[in-house]
Amino acid sequence: MAFFFNFVACCTIIYFLVQFILWLVLDADIELFILSKLGKPISSLKGKVVWITGASSGIGRDLAIALARNGVRLCLSSRNISELLKVKQDCIAQSNGMLGPNDVYVLQMDMLDINHHNDYFNMVIDHFKTLDILVNNAGRSQRADWNAINIKVDRELFELDVFAVVHLSRIALNFFVRNSIKGHLAVTSSTAGLIGAPNSASYTGAKHALHGYFETLRNETFEVNITIFCPGPTATNFLQECFTDTPGTKYNQAVRPEDKRMTSERCGYLYAIALANKTHLSWVGNFPINAILYIGCYYPNVKRLLLKIVGMRRLRQVRDSR
Fold this sequence. Notes:
The chain is an alpha/beta fold. It is 49% helix and 12% strand. The strands form two sheets. Strands 3-2-1-4-5-6-9 form a seven-stranded parallel β-sheet, sandwiched between helices. It has a two-stranded parallel sheet with strand order 7-8. Strand 4, helix 6 and strand 5 form a beta-alpha-beta unit. Helix 6 packs parallel to helix 7.
């Protein structure tokens, strides 16, 4: 009996050591990393129709290019039509001849224009006659102290990052149900949707709300795949567009070259892997994001202890990739 308990104890220790080492070296959760090596390739989506909101820059742009390289037909939407047209040309150029002009549809769209969501959706269906995956990528982050945030900012951020996403997704879901399509809804969340990020209260609350909405949908009876994708700090222009504590103002700062952020290209590639393999929840980020998320999600008591040891100042530095 003593031998058995010793054996179990040794196996447990080895398991946690291996897991800890993986947390330190990987830039994605363990499932997504394994799928990137052994799972379905992005090319398994060839010929599918994928609609990406917020596709004019950053993660949305690089996700589109990663999919285009594998022959995925695309609808690209955002408010910035000139940048969308550039992304369209990049997608066609990098598709190795698999995509032509009609395979990449550009749709100028304001996510906050909820009254016209049905019109936008019908335009996509009129062009492609179908839809396989909706990627809700449009949104804005935030930098502000919790106690200083004007309630109007909370409402504005939730309108864009939550309610607009939920509304468009319901339209897509009803289309899938009516046409007996096993569709796929994806939402770009954030590591702030898993662990509270300091100085981003409205944004963190919005991302947690998205998890609640889409996890609830997953637990209902609709035949639809759902992927919640949570990037950590990524080298995009998101800081310039961040909400602050004051309505109508932007943070308007650039990401610094020395910041330790995941490249947008790598993030877009891993996002495409998550879509191809229909993962439920995936996260990505450079060290120490992976370790923090595993500890925070699976060992909350350890997380509280580490926060006391590390302190909020260092946590802010991690959030800002410094």
